[in-house]
Amino acid sequence: MEEGSTDGDLTNVLKVLIGASAGFAIGWLISHPKSSLKNKLPKTKIEGFHVLPNIRLVKKDKVYRLHHWMVLASFYFPLLWKKGNFLKYKLLHGIVIGSILQGLSFKDRFNIICESANDFIDNELKLNPVTEFEVNKDSCSR
Description:
5-stranded antiparallel beta sheet; 5 strands
């Protein structure tokens, strides 16, 4: 009987690893500046609140960025804490974990508040995400 549980454990680990690989790849395709898919996503905003391709709030003097890893972590960890039906879906766990890890792989992962909205917007317009990627700590250009 223990042998069957070992097989089940290995299957669960494999599901999480496959999901994490898929989550990392999806995160890269949606958020990495060199990804051609990111550039094809619609640019959605309501006044100063941008939803796609990145979540950010643009004010007169600052830009506030909410990275995808922060959004996923804010939903994932409370679901783990609750211990409901969500725990059954190992592949989904892996996808969320992989996406969080992908977001944490960026150098600007903790840059949330950008000091100058004008610098941020100027850098967004100048940057060609398909061919180059620059990280400017003062303006959070990604």
